[in-house]
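Q: I'm building a small set of examples for a reading group on sequence design. Run inverse folding on the following structure and report the sequence directly after it, with nothing in between.
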């Protein structure tokens, strides 16, 4: 019941697109910002599936030198 709740989906999309520290990081789809209509579309189309889209691999510098890989998922997968 909670997974299909419209209010919970709205909260998830809001956290991903407005409150999250990494909200401007674009995934493989290249989308980094969503306007109001796009957020409503995302809320309406969130469905629990078993498949995730590919993630974008980014190398992040470590404090003591070197780099580590980090995957950035798409906005849809973050909200999901």
């Amino acid at each position: 019941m909670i997974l299909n709740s419209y209010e919970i989906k709205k909260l998830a999309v809001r956290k991903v697109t407005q409150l999250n520290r990494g909200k401007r990081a674009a995934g493989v789809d290249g989308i980094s910002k969503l306007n109001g209509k796009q957020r409503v579309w995302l809320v309406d189309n969130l469905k629990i599936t078993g498949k995730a889209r590919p993630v974008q691999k980014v190398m992040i510098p470590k404090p003591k030198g070197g780099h580590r890989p980090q995957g950035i998922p798409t906005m849809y997968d973050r909200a999901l």
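The chain is about 35% helix and 15% strand.
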